[in-house]
Amino acid sequence: MDQITFHYDTVLSEVHMLLPSAQHLMTRLNGVGQPVFMSKFKILGEKHNNDQGKGMVKEEKYKNPGGSSGNSKTGTHGENAIEGGEENVPFLDEDGDFDIMHRPRKNPLEASDRDLVCPVILKQSSPVLEQEEENTDDEEGHCFKDVIRIEHTMATPLEDVGKQVWRGAFFLADFILSEPALFSGATVLELGAGTGLTSIIMATIAKKVYCTDVGEDLLGMCTRNVTLNKCKMEPAGGEVKVRKLDWLQHGLCTDADMEFSWTEEEVADLHNSTSFIIAADICYDDDLTDGLFRTLYQLCSNFNHTCTIFLSIEKRMNFTLRHMDISCEAYHHFRHCLSQLKHLVDGRCRYKVEQLPSNFAQFLLYERVEQLELWKVTTTPLSSEQA
Known about the structure:
The protein is α/β, with parallel strands linked by helices. The chain has helices spanning 14-18, 46-51, 108-111, 127-140, 167-178, 180-183, 197-203, 216-228, 230-233, 264-273, 286-301, 329-342, 382-386, and strands at 10-11, 25-29, 35-42, 82-83, 86-87, 147-152, 156-157, 187-190, 208-213, 239-244, 274-280, 307-314, 318-320, 325-327, 349-356, 372-381. It has a domain at 163-381: 3-Layer(aba) Sandwich (Rossmann fold), CATH 3.40.50.150.
């Protein structure tokens, strides 16, 4: 169970591969039989941000002996060391063989940094079991200060990548935490929320967050994550509502018999009160990217107020047989859609597109690579300008 099996269509987030000292605790199997893990992500404070750029302290004891100066000694496995003018001779046993001194070994159970792992039998989750697990978490756990707990999967097919945690979500969350005055008390819509990490971070500042995606299993996981971190949102009075929003379909699902559907009041509140729309690292397929920008256009066309959109994306390089070279097709299509939106003239809205600098503070522990970008789109209804 602890080993991830890769197939030809398996995708694994860099967060799960490169995050040091991460505790990925496998908790259950989801409704489709995929292992679900629990990870804890710490929100770093101001001290970390002030210490950025100082670098890490390097150990000195493993430096190259040839580069040292003075009366340094050379080990017996290299040139013979000279001490007090005499040559050090290795010890010999009674048969004349070298008597090699071995370094004493530590007891692995006492000195190991790894926890003892015991196998457990997991069953696929059901609504009853999920409710029991939530109650258990509430009883045994408590509100960890500055720690976000997220359930997620690892090594999924491309269509299930939303069940993993990606650097783009951390990148957007950093920007949110660095601009608390901007989002304070706002109503926010997140598209393609996945595990809900960015919505949870936003709800620690904003008044209301509509956290949207597709797929009952994914939305159920997102709901569990919101419940796990509810105590983080209570001080600011934030609220997260997990709802279904399919970019490839027109309109919002308002069928009361469907889980994660919208009420008429929520639809009206979405159109009248949404000040910000956010999306993190969701442009990896051209059809989905087209659906994203089509959804953005439809939503903003129904707003009678200015709305600001923040989109984070990671520029991923891949080798393609069509080009026989390294290319970034998904990123280039994203930029093409941004350009089309910027120059769109429909008599309804005016769109301003700009790339934001990436030098804001880092509050979450991840590798902030230079390929991470943050884009801002400001939509202004022409009717409001004329008025």
